[in-house]
């Protein structure tokens, strides 16, 4: 049996696809997300976390809620394989998902499942490829076999730092890409923004010990392309609203917004220049106007690529 904590769109989608092949226990406080796909008989719903006794548990809660979940339930979850399914950097600690897991559950096996994926595609059984990162390669291989399905193909790595930062940073760049389109700056500008954003992702990730090939893989470049080019991405839609000067539903989770703030702090601590991330943080926080943000980026010194 697989346990899944979090019955939002992504947790429910994972329950749908994994439940086609094995028993799944799905925990959520307020029922499941409104995906237009039926749950199989192998998926059992519960609002009692104590009923989730699986040895492999997917943590499909928003990044900024992960620390609280682990803090309240670390003792109950310790000793299991805990696979984070969120993308971002914790605002309170500056840590990524697997580091949060390790701190709260020292006897657990931390891992992260990340990459280019929309919940609706996974739930419908459309072909999807993701990265599964675990520093223990033998444990990662076992998880890879356990969590792969006919339509969900997992590639594994031991580079949890690269996988985490690729997934976290691409959300910030996706907001910026949405700003470009929302402001009517055109597709050429978006392509330039994505390219320079990818350079920012590499600068920070490599400085923190990530491997270049991880950033060039599914969890980095692959996820960046998806979220910067589709309005299925909440981060992209949020950026579009910023660029157009329109409102945005405050109840929709936008992981890149908090991540931008956390990454600005992280980059400053390591002396890494990340102008696009800083612009997203300032624009989302209302500290600069859209014309000021655009002018700030366009007036940067000319240099070699």
Automatic annotation (TrEMBL):
The residues forming the signal peptide are: none
The annotated pathway is: Membrane lipid metabolism; glycerophospholipid metabolism
Q: Which InterPro entries match?
A: 6-PGluconate_DH-like_C_sf, 6PGD_dom2, G3P_DH_NAD-dep, G3P_DH_NAD-dep_C, G3P_DH_NAD-dep_N, NAD(P)-bd_dom_sf
Which UniProt key words apply to this protein? Cytoplasm, Lipid biosynthesis, Lipid metabolism, NAD, NADP, Nucleotide-binding, Oxidoreductase, Phospholipid biosynthesis, Phospholipid metabolism
Its top-level enzyme class, in one word, is oxidoreductase
Ranges for domain Glycerol-3-phosphate dehydrogenase NAD-dependent C-terminal = 159-294
* Domain Glycerol-3-phosphate dehydrogenase NAD-dependent N-terminal residue range list: 2-138
Cellular localisation = Cytoplasm
> Cross-referenced Pfam families, in alphabetical order?
NAD_Gly3P_dh_C (PF07479), NAD_Gly3P_dh_N (PF01210)
* Record-listed E.C. numbers: 1.1.1.94
Active-site residue list: 170
Where along this sequence does the record place binding of substrate?
87, 234-235
Q: What does this protein do?
A: Catalyzes the reduction of the glycolytic intermediate dihydroxyacetone phosphate (DHAP) to sn-glycerol 3-phosphate (G3P), the key precursor for phospholipid synthesis.
| Annotated protein name in UniProt | Glycerol-3-phosphate dehydrogenase [NAD(P)+]
Q: Report the source organism.
A: Cereibacter ovatus
